[in-house]
Amino acid sequence: GVMALAFILFSGGLDTEWGKVRPVLLPGVVLATLGVALTALLVGFFASLILGFSPLQGLLLGAIVSSTDAAAVFSVLRSQGVRLKERLKALLELESGINDPMAILLTVGLTSLLLGAAQPKDLVWIGLKQLGLGITWAWDQWGFQYRGLGLLLSFSLVLFSYGLTAVLGGSGFAAVYVAGLVVGQLSLRRKEELLLFHEGVAWIMQVLMFLVLGLLVFPSRLPEVAPKGAL
Prior knowledge:
This protein has 231 residues and is mostly helical. 75% of the residues lie in helices and 0% in strands. The chain has helices spanning 2-14, 18-21, 25-49, 55-64, 70-78, 86-98, 100-114, 122-140, 151-167, 172-185, 191-215, 222-230. Helix 1 runs parallel beside helix 10 (172-185), helix 3 (25-49) packs across helix 4 (55-64) and helix 9 (151-167) packs antiparallel against helix 10.
């Protein structure tokens, strides 16, 4: 699932025009950080007040559902039947592509707090690493001017960008999305072939992603949680 999302985000960044993203960069970043945190707080408050979860458990539930699903957003926006204003479309693409680091930070941090494996002050350092390193590593890709970038090399770039950033403690998802955004702005030979290749890979990865999500659901457990889940 993690690998599938990395390829989906890279394809989304690759197909995003920087000229359209630049005007919505600030609101996109605000939505992907403060917007995700506010969503987590609101859902957490609802889960605690209405569903009977403890405040910390409610916040964890809010953190898990706080970010938009990049796979679903890119799939819907790329379909032929969707006609949105370019500014709104660019904002949705950017926000869904970079909001995962904030959601992962909140989910990992709150889980650690619930298990007693971390203190509230530790979350600050975790956040700096996740958000800072993810953006820093991807920004370094800006200086890479590949000529004749092969399909295999671009495939490896996804794994390398995510893997190295994750090993350093940063957000591989942010790195992969921005790396795709950067590569998409380069003047490359056979660029159309590159775009079509990663569009196909992204579709396969979306199928795998939802298959994995389905495998995590046990039908026998659904009746017990269905009312709260529906709410």
